[in-house]
Design a protein that fits this description.
Helix content is 45%, strand content 19%. It has 614 residues and is of the alpha+beta class. The protein folds into five domains: 86 residues, GIY-YIG endonuclease (3-Layer(aba) Sandwich); 141 residues, no CATH class; 115 residues, 2-Layer Sandwich (Nucleotidyltransferase, domain 5); 151 residues, Nucleotidyltransferase, domain 5 (2-Layer Sandwich); 52 residues, 5' to 3' exonuclease, C-terminal subdomain (DNA polymerase, domain 1), CATH 1.10.150. The strands form four sheets. Strands 12, 13, 14, 15, 16, 17, 18 and 19 form an eight-stranded mixed β-sheet that branches. The chain has a five-stranded mixed β-sheet with strand order 9-8-7-10-11, sandwiched between helices. Strands 2-1-3 form a three-stranded antiparallel β-sheet.
Length: 614
């Protein structure tokens, strides 16, 4: 968004003041017309940084545009180094809490793990303790960690999670799906003694409290004693339980002794807003998670740096390891600041491969889930748009995506379909269908050119609301040839929208994105791959459905023209008026005569051939 003098009449004054500003490092303090501080930032070069806010024709993200439009004046403090500016910036932000800086609140409650007091106890996640005889483990500061731990324990030890009450409901109903897929031991079948079930509950609680390594050690000792006492069935069950714990330890992330004490931070951005998730590991287990709404989106590296500084400004301590999903603006200076603040070694890293990248992915997924609640979209939709924007090097995730496909049968009934996805979801009211008018032989490039010219011709006319929205991204069902054909068309029309093609493999499945001179693989961007596959499948469905409908109408029209005195135009009049074969068959000869404009003899002949149609 471009800031103008009309948006903020104080801009000429601010530009003049900034022209005299020093090039030294320091902190700048933006104020509104009431003298209230609305933003505090640091700069390696004060003149260059502050000038970027007020320069004519400067393109700003929405959050920055809002802030600049409110600036009435600013102050600055010169420092000896950029690091000193960073320390001062953090101190001033904490003191003044400006509106346009990232501000975080910590208002977390507590959660517990509840082991019910009944003949067949259950393990549950609860938000508070009740005055009952159940056993409570906790408190924990993270309801997320509690839910994850309970879910993992129930899964590993195959404990029932249904609403049945035991022993009341034993042998009353058939076992559920969880029993058949080996996710439940099947207490309802009556084949699980109460003593064995309660022993399993104790083992699950021990697993939650002490982790997988100690649980395996204790179960191994029990298995060996059972074998020595010739209790081979019990030993076999314990062996299977040990294998389940070891298998779970390979993939689950709740209890993992190989993970050092660390915080994992990721930020997810939708079209206009951003959210952050912090996942905490302590003593080899996931101990806590915090989600924060960050408001308007910003440049990713800057937003990551601002969030980390804001987050740790309210923390009394930090772990030695901090894992980030994305690079901050200056990772070395960030690390230096945290080491000085906490007076111990702090390593800030961005994992690129291996087990730790799974943790940053988990944090990213949680941030996407958090943002999806605010924007009314699923995590997959939010993540898909974000990954797609990153793959295509777009500044922000596209809100409106248009995709086009050509469908024909040789050189007959050539049509095109246009689908629109809004915020990662089909927007069917904006779909369009085109019958090709100027191309008479099979030529997909020429057909696509006609469709694009017609679509954006309607946009510039401004008469059809269905074409009024300019997309943020255009996709063509085709490869580099399509992209290289249509890109000059868009330039000639004055349409400045990113354009790419969707390439399919030999099995007609989405394979990659065509850029015009190469391809972008989405193999490592699963959510983006699923999104473009959905878009490509949808536009193909729309185009092929329209083509089949038009071909059916053509065949229908051809049958009608076999009647003497009925040409193509009269046949089309009948099809347009009655729309379906059923309606035509129900029409009387007099109605056919009135619509087609034929004599009585011809109308009777039409009625006869229509009645014979299958």
């Amino acid at each position: 968004m471009y800031i103008t003098d009309e948006d903020n009449p104080r801009l000429p004054f601010l530009r003049d003041k900034t022209s005299k500003l020093t090039t030294s490092p320091g902190v700048y303090i933006m104020k509104d017309k009431n003298g209230k501080i609305i933003y505090i930032g640091k700069a390696k070069n004060l003149h260059n940084r502050v000038t970027s806010y007020f320069r004519k024709g400067q393109d700003h993200l929405p959050k920055v545009w809002k802030m600049v439009s409110k600036v009435n004046d600013y102050e600055f403090i010169v420092t000896d180094s950029e690091f000193e500016a960073l320390v001062l910036e953090c101190s001033l932000i904490k003191l003044h809490t400006p509106k346009y800086n990232i501000l975080l609140k910590d208002d977390k409650g507590y959660s517990y793990i509840r082991v019910t007091d009944e003949a067949y106890p259950r393990i549950q996640a609860v938000l508070q303790k009740s005055d009952d005889s159940a056993e409570y483990i906790g408190p924990y500061t993270s309801s997320f960690a509690v839910r994850q731990a309970v879910e993992e324990a129930n899964k590993v030890f195959r404990l029932p999670t249904c609403t049945k009450v035991f022993p009341r409901d034993i042998r009353k109903q058939r076992p559920c799906l969880n029993f058949h897929i080996k996710r439940c031991m099947g207490v309802c079948t009556g084949k699980c003694p109460q003593e064995e079930y309660n022993a399993t509950i104790r083992q699950a609680v021990d697993y939650i409290k002490n982790g997988s390594a100690q649980s395996v050690e204790r179960l191994t000792a029990e298995m060996e004693r059972a074998a020595e006492n010739l209790e081979f069935e019990l030993a076999a069950r314990l062996r299977d339980r040990i294998a389940a714990i070891q298998k779970a330890a390979e993939s689950q992330k709740v209890i993992d002794e190989t993970v050092p004490d660390c915080d994992i931070i990721a930020i997810s951005q939708n079209v206009d807003i951003a959210c952050a998730s912090v996942i905490m590991y302590r003593s080899g287990r996931l101990s806590d998670k915090a989600d924060y709404y960050l408001g308007d989106r910003a440049e990713p590296a800057q937003m990551m740096e601002e969030f980390v500084l804001s987050y740790y400004s309210m923390k009394d301590d930090a772990p030695k390891t901090i894992l980030l999903a994305e690079e901050p603006s200056d990772i070395e200076m960030l690390q230096q600041y945290l080491r000085k603040k906490y007076d111990h070694a702090v390593y800030v890293t961005v994992p690129k491969r291996g087990h730790l990248t799974q943790l940053t992915t988990m944090a990213k997924n949680n941030a996407s889930e958090f943002i999806s609640v605010r924007v009314g979209r699923t995590r997959h939709e939010v993540a898909g748009l974000e990954e797609l924007a990153r793959a295509l090097n777009m500044e922000k995730p596209p809100r409106f995506i248009e995709c086009y496909d050509i469908s024909n049968l040789a050189s007959s009934d050539m049509v095109a379909g246009m689908v629109v996805f809004e915020n990662g979801r089909p927007c069917k009211r904006r779909y369009k269908k085109f019958g090709i008018k100027t191309v008479f032989e099979q030529n997909d490039y020429a057909c696509m050119t006609e469709v694009i010219e017609r679509r954006f011709g309607e946009y510039f006319k401004g008469e059809d609301e269905g074409f009024a929205q300019l997309p943020d991204l255009i996709l063509l069902d085709g490869g580099n040839g399509h992209v290289n054909t249509i890109r000059p068309v868009l330039e000639r029309l004055g349409v400045d929208v990113p354009l790419y093609g969707l390439v399919k493999d030999d099995r007609h499945r989405t394979r990659a994105i065509a850029t015009g001179d190469g391809e972008i693989s989405l193999i490592k961007s699963r959510e983006a791959f699923d999104l473009v596959t959905q878009i490509q499948d949808e536009v193909h469905r729309v185009a092929i459905t329209y083509q089949k409908k038009k071909r059916s109408h053509s065949a229908f029209s051809l049958e009608l023209t076999t009647v003497k005195g009925v040409g193509e135009k009269k046949a089309q009049k009948l099809i347009t008026a009655f729309k379906t074969k059923e309606a035509l068959k129900n029409a009387s000869a007099e109605e056919l005569r009135a619509v087609a404009g034929v004599n009585e003899e011809t109308a009777l002949a039409l009625k006869e051939i229509i009645d014979e149609m299958s």
